[in-house]
Design goal:
There is one protein chain. Helix 2 crosses helix 11, helix 3 packs antiparallel against helix 4 and helix 7 packs antiparallel against helix 12. Helices cover 81% and strands 0% of the residues. The protein contains 12 helices and no strands. It starts with a helix and ends with a helix. The N terminus is likely disordered. It is mainly α and 353 residues long.
Length: 353
């Protein structure tokens, strides 16, 4: 009886597992939708609206407006009291500028590159984050980790070599987007996390989206506004751009939900699954050319990313185990100290008697 009942999973644990899979599924679906939707809008062979700065600004305007309403009209969340003007100027503004560049460059890359190849190039994100973390002394240099990073880079290089629609300008844009995004992630740790400031997706958009909008305004006026003024494309389709912006806003919420309810590592692993799904979708539905050399190169990069995630997981487990061991030692030390104090008090009582 006991053995048979032990084969069943505890309902509480089963519920947590199912919820974790649900969060992963929601994030993959929304991330998938935003990428494909942006590609559809920007690609000249599809919707043919090749204005990435304008599209990014529409997203930021929508997200900042909705975040403002959720904070001030509906009081959905409270703003952190630690966010002073000085912190905003010294921390949020640099992060917002990098975020605007990352979004601008990554959206621009969809005009020149296939969805599948962009996902392969995004495998370089751990390489960029680790390199910049070492540069800013947030991570210590380790030869085995660097070897892992080189293996990922080698795999992406092979995938690029086998790309049928290789475009050097598109690759430059995507690599720039990876570099800006990696720098932004490192600066979040340095400028915000170190100050004890944590932002949920709504407050993040409340502070950062208007900042992105302001940074993108100047290049928009210089580069895209003259072109938009000369074409009928200046008249926006509110259904297309409204639903696209809503997906972008929902994706920000899903990122917070996934990390908050699981972990950043889970998001990294889910990202690998999403990349393979996008590559399959790009090949089968959009009819992008995916060569065998592409797949071999990305497969090598994938193994490198998987090894990196595994190493991070092992390090997290070791750190957690060490933390628990320290807590146990401290508890034992406290009990031993209390026991000695009790014995001392007992001896004093006996001598006084």
């Amino acid at each position: 009886m006991g053995k048979g009942s032990s084969s069943f999973i505890n309902p509480t644990i089963l519920k947590k597992i199912l919820l974790s899979y649900a969060y992963v599924g929601i994030w993959i679906f929304l991330s998938f939708s935003v990428i494909v939707y942006n590609k559809y809008i920007l690609d000249r062979k599809m919707y043919n609206w090749p204005f990435p700065i304008s599209l990014t600004m529409i997203h930021m305007l929508f997200c900042s407006s909705l975040a403002f309403l959720l904070v001030h009209a509906f009081h959905f969340v409270d703003l952190p009291s630690s966010m002073t003007r000085k912190v905003y100027l010294n921390s949020v503004v640099p992060i917002g500028s990098l975020y605007s560049l990352s979004l601008w460059f990554s959206n621009s890359a969809y005009i020149y590159l296939s969805v599948s190849f962009i996902q392969m190039l995004k495998a370089l994100m751990p390489v960029a984050v680790y390199s910049i973390s070492v540069l800013f002394r947030k991570e210590s240099f380790r030869s085995n980790t660097m070897a892992n990073m080189l293996s990922i880079s080698f795999g992406v290089a092979i995938a690029a070599y086998g790309e049928a629609r290789f475009d050097s300008w598109g690759v430059t844009l995507q690599l720039g987007a990876v570099a800006f995004e990696a720098t932004r992630l490192v600066l979040i740790q340095i400028l915000l996390t170190s100050k004890g400031i944590s932002l949920n997706p709504i407050t993040s958009l409340y502070y950062i989206a208007p900042c992105c909008l302001a940074f993108l305004f100047v290049p928009w006026v210089l580069v895209e506004f003259p072109l938009l003024r000369e074409t009928s494309s200046f008249r926006l389709d509110f259904v297309i751009f409204g639903t696209n912006s809503l997906c972008a806003f929902a994706l920000n919420l899903a990122v917070f939900l996934l990390i908050g309810k699981t972990s950043a590592l889970t998001m990294n692993v889910a990202g690998v699954v999403k990349d393979w799904l996008l590559i399959a979708f790009s090949w089968s539905v959009i009819r992008d050319t995916v060569t065998m050399v592409n797949l071999v190169g990305y497969g090598l990069a994938f193994l490198g990313v998987a090894h990196y995630n595994h190493s991070k997981l092992q390090a997290m487990r070791a750190k957690e185990s060490q933390k628990k061991s320290t807590q146990v030692d401290e508890e034992e030390g406290r009990l031993l100290s209390e026991e000695r104090e009790g014995e001392e008090i007992g001896r004093k009582s006996d001598s006084q008697a």
